[in-house]
Each structure stands twice: as structure tokens, then as C-alpha cells.
Amino acid sequence: MITAGATLGYLRHGFAPASIFLGDSGSNLLGYLLGTIVIQGALKTNAVIALAFPLVVLAVPILDSSFVIAKRIKYGKPIYTADRWHFHHRFANIGFSPRRTTLYLYGWTMTLAALALALRFVPYSDNHGHFHTKWVLVLAAFGLLALAASVYLVLVLEILKLKRFRQFQLRRENQLQGAPPPEEAEVDRKLARELETGEFEPVRLRDPERR
User: Fold this and answer.
1) 152-180 pLDDT, tens per residue?
2) Quick one: CA torsion of 177, 178, 180, 185, rounded to 10 degrees?
3) At what angle do helices 98-121 and 47-57 cross, to 10 degrees?
4) How far is CA 31 from CA 23, 54, 146, 155, in A?
């Protein structure tokens, strides 16, 4: 509760446009506190929940770090070098505002946190391994919500390198600007650069003259 109160107080002034910033010291301390709380809470449950709970509740930062490290290794860059491959960078690269990026990450984190809490507190089985259908369905609903949010974010951030969708965006942009469709080789070169660097140019799919 102390950690929750401190973070909620920060979010009041840290939401875009922010008047204060957490910084490395604040984020490292918060990560340490969250990790400690998760481990302490997980030790009071069975082995399966003890393993799943920390991974689910901290899935977003874990996935973010893992994705960035994997990209740096893939392209032969030191894992400690700065780049623009983090999730919030990818949001910015495809044209999201800081406020919209924050809200998307909030929503994703909340669905995963809700699933983690459901794993911990929903009484889907008794001490003898008998499952309760109603509570199992409730738990499945939390799981489907978290899965849907994760799949949607993967599509939005183009983590799976959805080449055909990106080709459609680029051609649609040329069409709205009254330019001829780009050559296949030009599209391939642009896609290769974006997928290698992780830097996606904003694509406007609406008529620029419309408000």
C-alpha cells in the first residue's frame, strides 16, 4: 500500500505533460520494491502461481527489456548502447503522442496485473485439486483480456514485422498525397531500413487537407 500510494502520487504530476520525472534512481528503486513485493507475495502460494505471478505482473518491463536486448544482439550491437527500440520509442516512431503512448502502456499493464491478481486471489480450485467452473471461467476471462491486449499491442508496434501491412500503409500514404504508387524495390528498401533500425516514420492514412 505504501508503494501504491507513492506511485499514484507521482502519476498525478508525471502524466504527460509532466511536471516531474521519475529518473533512473526512482525507476530502479520502484523496480526493486515491486520485485521484492512480488516475491514475498508469491512465496505464500503454490509453486505454479509462485512462478507465474512475478512474470505476469511485471510482463511489460520484462518483455520490453528482452525485446531490446534481442534486437541489439541480432544486429551485432552492444546490449548497453542506447537506441530507439524500446516500446515507447516504437510508439513515438509510428506517430503516437506521449499521452497516447502512456495510456496504451497503462492499459496493457493493467490487463496483465489484473490477470496476475486473478491467479492469486480467484478461488478457481479447492485444496484437493477440484476446479470450480464459475471461477475458472472468470479466470479465463481475465486471461483472454490480457491475451487480446498483448496481441493488439504486438500488431500496433509491428514487433512481428508485418511486412504486408506496412506495404499497404506506405502505398496508401502515397495515394492520399496524389503521388504514384512506389516501386516494389523502393518499398522493400524502406521496410528493410525500418525493420533493422526500429525507427518507423509516421504514416498518415487520412487526407491531410481534412481536419
Assistant:
1) 887 777 665 555 666 667 677 777 777 77
2) 0
3) 170
4) 12, 12, 21, 27
Type of residue found at 168: F
Taking alpha carbons only, the member of 138, 203, 141, 147 closest to residue 177 is: 203
> Residue type at 209?
E
CA gap 40, 31 in Å, rounded: 14
Q: Which amino acid is at 197?
A: T
Residue 5 cell numbers, joined: 500510494
The pLDDT-based confidence of 211 (bands split at 50, 70, 90) is very low
**203 is written with which cell numbers?**
504514416
How much of the chain, in percent, has pLDDT values that exceed 70? 74
